UniProtKB/TrEMBL annotation:
PROSITE patterns: HTH_GNTR. Residues 1-55 form the HTH gntR-type domain. It holds the Pfam family FCD. This is HTH-type transcriptional regulator. InterPro entries: GntR_C (IPR011711), TF_FadR/GntR_C (IPR008920), Tscrpt_reg_HTH_GntR (IPR000524), WH-like_DNA-bd_sf (IPR036388), WH_DNA-bd_sf (IPR036390). The lineage of its organism: Bacteria, Bacillati, Bacillota, Bacilli, Lactobacillales. GO terms for molecular function: DNA binding; DNA-binding transcription factor activity. The keyword Transcription applies. Gene3D superfamilies: GntR ligand-binding domain-like (1.20.120.530), Winged helix-like DNA-binding domain superfamily/Winged helix DNA-binding domain (1.10.10.10). PANTHER family: HTH-TYPE TRANSCRIPTIONAL REGULATOR LGOR-RELATED, TRANSCRIPTIONAL REGULATOR, GNTR FAMILY. Keywords: DNA-binding, Transcription, Transcription regulation.
Length: 150
């Protein structure tokens, strides 16, 4: 909900509201809030409430820099290693992305874009790099989704 901008930066949230909205119990909500705080996606202001964290432009720029720098090498490695079968998988993902872009389904489009990039890293035998990138990609992905127009 944070990544897809259903909860926007600066918005106040409450456990009770989330329980009702998601129709799940208090314990999973509490566990999720702990994890979201650890990932800096939410922050607590004493005697005020819990808020969706704002997006840091510096974090976005740094994440984009890292990703662009790495992806140049990853794409070269992918081009050298890709098989016909993998190429067909990549093409299938691109076709699906076009379909969901035409349907204006931002969530599915975004998920397919992530799947496409993950497959590129896998073909390049850099899956651990992709997994590591996910830790710094959160601010970038939030920003990408907020400005996504399909």
């Amino acid at each position: 909900m944070i990544l897809t901008a259903k909860l926007i930066p600066g918005q106040k949230i409450s456990e009770k509201e989330l329980e009702q909205r998601l129709t799940i119990g208090r314990t999973p909500i509490c566990e999720a809030i702990i994890r979201l705080r650890r990932e800096a996606l939410i922050h607590v202001v004493p005697q005020s409430g819990t808020y969706i964290s704002k997006i840091s432009i510096k974090q976005i720029e740094e994440a984009r820099f890292v990703r662009e720098t790495l992806e140049k090498e990853v794409f070269v490695a992918t081009c050298q290693a890709v098989t016909e079968e993998q190429l067909k998988e990549l093409e299938k993902l691109v076709i699906l992305q076009r379909t969901y872009a035409q349907l204006k389904d931002e969530i599915e489009f975004f998920q397919l874009d992530e799947a496409l990039h993950q497959l590129i890293y896998k073909i390049a035998d850099k899956e651990n790099v992709w997994n590591w990138l996910q830790t710094i990609n959160l601010p970038l992905n939030r920003f990408r989704f907020l400005r996504l127009e399909v």
